[in-house]
Amino acid sequence: MILEKIATPVEILTERFLLRPVRKSDAGLFALYAGDERVAEATQGIPHPLPPGTAESFCARAMTAGTDEDIWVMDGTRSDLPEVLGVISLKRMDRGQSEVAFWVAPAFWNHGIASEAVQALVAANPQKNCTMFGEAFQDNPGSARVLTNAGFQYLGDAESFSVARGTTAPTWTYIRKL
Description:
The protein has 178 residues and is α+β, with helices and mostly antiparallel strands. The chain has a domain at 12-126: Gcn5-related N-acetyltransferase (GNAT) (Aminopeptidase), CATH 3.40.630.30. Helix content is 24%, strand content 31%. The chain has five helices and eight strands. It has an eight-stranded mixed β-sheet with strand order 1-2-3-4-5-6-8-7, sandwiched between helices.
């Protein structure tokens, strides 16, 4: 029998929380938070209303080795915060590039959680990228601020499809050279 080590995202410690790999037990809080229309509409891929089994499928996908995306949970237990504050991911592109995406539960908006997570991920650079990209819907200036707080520079306007909105919406695109 040959045993292969399954590649999982490395843990990244921030001042207030831990970025850790997704666990099966995260599904309940994912469903609660991602099921919020405000969260879903700020993302490209979360549907609203959240269909049954979506959170469990997300956990299974996040825990699968060999995908083009590394996904971390923002785990606040080290600071007496909930186990799931939000999610952050890096999706591999070509030529040493990745796209960062994130969402934070509404109860933790405006507390610097997303900024701390993105800054920690950039500093750790777990995929050894030379460039990271980020995108924010233009009606979500808070997410744009998170990216600029982490040193991302405005690249241009674009548009992306949002599953929850059921349409494309204008976005701002950002770049961070590493």
